[in-house]
Design a protein that fits this description.
This protein has 261 residues and is an alpha/beta fold. It contains eight helices and ten strands. The protein has two domains: 32 residues; 227 residues, Vaccinia Virus protein VP39 (Rossmann fold).
C-alpha cells in the first residue's frame, strides 16, 4: 500500500495499461468500455460497428412526431424499418418509445455488415422491446417485405475523399462501410429515394439523418422525386440541419415543406 492506496493486482494493471495504450492510439472510448449510451439505454458496441451519436436521437424523436400526427397509423400495427442499423440503436430506441406509448408495431433492422448485426442482435436480446423486431442482413431492404409506414435511416454520408481528414477515432477505427457515402456523400439518399415509392404505404414517411451541411442537397433530392408531397428538415440542438423527413403520396404531387428550427 502506497499513500493509502492498494496497488492493482498484476493482471488488472496489465489490462489497464493495454486499455490506456489503445486509447492513446485513438481507439474510441466506447470500444474500450463496450458500451455507448443512446436514448437513456446502454448499447453494446465494439470494433466493426459505428458508435451511436447523440445527434441520431433526433431521428428517433422526429419519427415519433410523425406517428403522433398520422392518424392512419393507429388503425393497425405500425410497420417500420431501420436501414443501415449498425448497433440497432435507432430502430430499437424507436420500438422502446412505442412501447411506452402503447403503440403496436412490427419492426425490421437491416444492415449489410454481418459484424454490425452481431451487435444489433445482442442489443435486441438485452433491451427486449415488447413488439416483434426482426434483424435481417440486407443491402437496404430485402425482397418480400410488406409496405412500411416508416423507413428510418442514418446511412453512410461522409464524402469518400473527406474520410482521411476525420479525427482518428473515426477515420482509423470506425468501419468505413458505415461512413462512406460516395463521392458527394449522397449515394445512399439517392437509393433511398428510389425505393421509397415501392416500399412505403400511402402517407408513409422516409426519415434520414445527414451531415450538418447536407440538408439543402437532401431536400433537393427528395423534392425532385414526384412521390413525396411533404419534405421537412429539422435542426439539431446546435442549430444544424440534421434530419430530413419526406411523406409519400400516391398522388403525383410534390409540395415543398418547411425547414424547421
Amino acid at each position: 500500500m502506497i499513500g493509502g492506496c492498494t496497488p492493482l493486482p498484476a493482471e488488472q494493471a496489465t489490462q489497464l495499461l493495454e486499455l490506456c495504450q489503445r486509447r492513446i492510439a485513438g481507439e474510441p472510448l466506447q470500444y474500450l468500455t463496450g458500451i455507448a449510451w443512446f436514448m437513456g439505454d446502454a448499447y453494446r458496441v465494439g470494433p466493426g460497428v459505428l458508435v451511436p451519436r447523440p445527434d441520431s436521437e433526433l431521428l428517433v424523436l422526429e419519427a415519433l412526431v410523425r406517428v403522433e400526427r398520422t392518424s392512419s397509423f393507429a388503425s393497425s400495427p405500425l410497420t417500420f424499418a431501420d436501414l443501415c442499423t449498425g448497433t440497432g440503436c435507432v430502430g430499437l430506441s424507436f420500438a422502446r418509445e412505442l412501447d411506452k406509448k402503447g403503440v403496436s408495431y412490427k419492426g425490421l433492422l437491416t444492415d449489410l455488415s454481418e459484424e454490425a448485426l452481431s451487435y444489433a442482435a445482442i442489443n435486441l436480446r438485452e433491451l427486449a422491446p415488447r413488439g416483434p423486431v426482426r434483424i435481417v442482413q440486407a443491402d437496404l431492404l430485402p425482397d418480400g417485405v410488406e409496405r412500411l409506414d416508416l423507413i428510418l435511416s442514418n446511412p453512410p454520408y461522409i464524402p469518400t475523399a473527406d474520410i482521411p481528414g476525420l479525427m482518428p477515432e473515426v477515420s482509423v477505427h470506425e468501419p468505413h462501410s458505415a461512413l462512406d457515402g460516395g463521392a458527394d456523400g449522397l449515394a445512399f439518399y439517392r437509393r433511398l429515394v428510389s425505393i421509397a415509392p415501392h416500399r412505403l404505404t400511402d402517407k408513409g414517411w422516409l426519415l434520414v439523418e445527414h451531415g450538418y451541411d447536407q440538408g439543402a442537397a437532401v431536400r433537393s433530392l427528395f423534392r425532385n422525386a414526384a412521390c413525396f408531397d411533404t419534405v421537412e428538415t429539422v435542426r439539431d440542438l446546435g442549430g444544424h440541419e440534421r434530419i430530413t423527413a419526406a411523406r409519400i403520396s400516391r398522388e403525383d404531387a410534390s409540395v415543398p415543406g418547411p425547414v424547421r428550427t
